[in-house]
Amino acid sequence: MGNGMENSGLKVIYLDIMVGEKFLTQIPYHYCPLFPIDIKEVEKFVLEKRPTLKNKKFRIEFATQRV
Question: Which of 4, 15, 18, 46 has its CA 20 to 30 A from that of 24?
């Protein structure tokens, strides 16, 4: 069956969330390759998914494969 996004043109990139040098989590992010990825939008998305990171220093690494 699938999730209904197979034919939508959206791609998935995985966001590796790092706190210091430690890997915290990986979050799938759907995007359209026709438009540039806005880092502010990605940061907002991460904070919506992981609100405990608010007011903390974290880094976002982009990955093409799931861990």
Answer: 4
